């Protein structure tokens, strides 16, 4: 019978091998099930820590502390060096992210500061971009620690990560007119302040449904993806163009297109959906109240 013992450097590994001791060592679950359980637990712990961090900062940074931080972070350099303030904030964001080795921790830390008015959204924007650049140092350090035969490939991947974020900064920050994320963040924030459920819808749509749809189209082939993506892009560009003309040159448009009043209400406003969600929520609360009353009786 063939010997299955493994040797390494003249030593028999089977003599020194011990069974790993971990949380699921005696569990009959499959590796996939154990991995999903650990993934859910890790996400729960991560989200809990971030929520507690945000609440702690919100409770601490008030009063004189908030005023001092507001004065320091939102002060610009004197003219004509005012434009350097944003780039200094970008470097600060990159440096702090390099120290904590986590852009999630950094951005979660400045989020409550924005909410209580300590940091302005205009100053938080370069800090966040710098954080995206600083987080690339983690991959770079990991690549430099790779074995010699894998060093070139690992360094290439780390540099791709670095230059991708760098070009994103060059695309959306140097020219003030193209700092669209600031206006988009303000618009989404105002929408969420009016419709609280919009934040959940936005997360589900942009981080789950839309990526899943794009992935499914890519699996279907480039012809299917092109056939669907091209008309969608044409519609988006056309609507954006009409919106710009409505705001600045409405006389260039036909009378019917000078506003969107001819469309159904659900296509131009979230109020019908908000009314539906409100009715469903009230119905669920009434149902829960009836059940609790029945149990008490």
Oligomer: single chain
Strand-residue proportion: under 5%
Mean pLDDT score: 82
Helix-and-strand structural type: mainly alpha
GO biological process, one term: intracellular phosphate ion homeostasis
Transmembrane segments: 32-57, 77-100, 151-175, 195-218, 224-245
GO molecular function, one term: sodium:phosphate symporter activity
GO cellular component, one term: brush border
Summarize the SSE layout with pairings:
Layout: E1 7-8, E2 11-12, H1 31-60, H2 64-73, H3 84-100, H4 103-115, H5 121-134, H6 136-144, H7 151-172, H8 180-194, H9 198-220, H10 222-248, H11 265-268, H12 271-296
Antiparallel strand pairs: 1-2
Which properties best describe this structure?
single chain, 12 helices, 297 residues, globular, two-stranded antiparallel ribbon, mainly alpha
Structure description:
With 297 residues, this protein is an all-alpha fold. The protein has a domain at 55-194. The chain contains 12 helices and 2 strands. It has helices spanning 31-60, 64-73, 84-100, 103-115, 121-134, 136-144, 151-172, 180-194, 198-220, 222-248, 265-268, 271-296, and strands at 7-8, 11-12. The protein has a two-stranded antiparallel ribbon. It is globular, with a radius of gyration of 27 Å. It starts with 6 loop residues before the first strand and ends with a helix.
